[in-house]
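Batch manifest, entry 17 of 40.
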Amino acid sequence: MVNNLNHKKALVLLSGGLDSFACAHFLKKQGYKVNSIFFNFNQASVIEERKSAKKIAQYLNIELEEVSVVFNSSFTAGEIRGRNAFLLSCALTQWKESNGLVALGIHAGTQYFDCSESFLNLMNSIFDGCTANQVRVFAPFISWGKSQIFEYCKINNIPLNLTYSCEMGTVPTCGSCLSCQDRKKYEFGC
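Output type: structure tokens
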């Protein structure tokens, strides 16, 4: 599970997508007291992601805090370099707990460095130093592929209709960004 750590509290970076929903569900199912945090960093999909994060938090009966970060520009589809490192660092500064887990739904099968075990290990080194080994970064799906997360959601009857996964932020979803392509591939078996 969590390298023999016996933490009872977790803060999940809740984006409104299925990976973070599954992560929060997983930790709650394991008996953790789960809180969540949503970041508005001027991403193209912020409006729909926020709506989904609120629905997910309500469904799981967990607290949701929103943090807004001001940038001079907005972000569109594709990789946002350093996003997960930035969000984890912000979560660490925002969370009032002195020990526990800061969790996110990153998983195997992407080319992004900030979704890798190496990234997770580096962030844990930083968190260890900043918190005297009291707060850890945890990614329950770090060795799972996207299809395994979809299967977890299916087995646990997680209502995917509460999630939003389009990088463009459109309604209806664009259907062509990587998030939309993943959703089609795994949710509908295309």
